[in-house]
UniProtKB/TrEMBL annotation:
Gene that this sequence comes from: Cenpp
Gene Ontology BP, a term: CENP-A containing chromatin assembly
Annotated InterPro entries: CENP-P (IPR027801)
Protein name: CENPP protein
The organism of origin for this protein: Tychaedon coryphoeus
Leader sequence segment: none
Amino acid sequence: EDDFQPYEDEIKALKEEIQLLTEKYEDIRQESTFFSDEEILKAIKSFQRETQEETKGEASLSELKAQLESLETDLSFLMKFTGFHFTSHSKKTLEKTRNRTVQKHRLSGKCHSLSFQLEFQLLEMQDNEKVSTVVSDLSIIMESREDSNVSKFVSSIEERGDLLTFFRSLSTYAEWYEHRRHTFLHFK
């Protein structure tokens, strides 16, 4: 039995890593649903099919490695396509009942070269089969907030709790910010 212990330890470590990657993938997938690119939809459907299949018996090491590589590929594709790279995410459940959940999220990352941090509460309510979510107490920290236009925009997003518009706009703004930065470097 001791001969198999190193393999079992490695399988356990890989399963934990797969779980972490799955959670990160889900977080990014939820924030990226506004992109309708065919390849993203295909990657998400492929990921959902893989996670819905129940593992029967003990998976071999090569199967676990292949699954891990597939998750990493999907995650890498989403990060390249959107420009978002999430460096940390934590959530804390503040309240949970049968049809109501309140969670506090902290999220940090970069979009192209712009760093950002978000903190917000997410209220999720389930009514029969319908699930609705409400974002509240949104706080955004961005390095380019000294720009008055960006500051006004961020303030209005915080008031409305509109995460979708924030991520859409940040993606476009960060891309053009990067182009401007390269252009100015070229003239220096």
